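Researcher: Let's do a round of design. I'm pasting the structure tokens now; please hold your answer until I've finished.
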């Protein structure tokens, strides 16, 4: 099962935090997603190792996507 976060536009869980930019599966609006460490608040590196998707270079540890502090912002229009 894919872990989805809430879309700020339609308020439904429709954004996959592993990808950015990404369109909501419900309203189709595009967003950028950035993950931050819940401990030190540094921006996380996207990483794929088993079921862990994020790595904190500051804390030097793998972070489960369920613990990440995600910041969602509208994607910039192309052009």
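Researcher: That's everything. Go ahead.
Model: Designed sequence:
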């Amino acid at each position: 099962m894919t872990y989805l976060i809430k879309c700020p536009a339609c308020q439904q869980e429709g954004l996959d935090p592993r990808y950015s930019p990404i369109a909501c599966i419900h309203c189709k609006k595009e967003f950028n997603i950035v993950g931050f460490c819940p401990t030190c608040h540094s921006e996380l590196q996207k990483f794929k190792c088993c079921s862990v998707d994020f790595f904190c270079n500051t804390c030097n540890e793998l972070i489960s996507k369920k613990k990440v502090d995600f910041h969602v912002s509208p994607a910039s229009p192309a052009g």
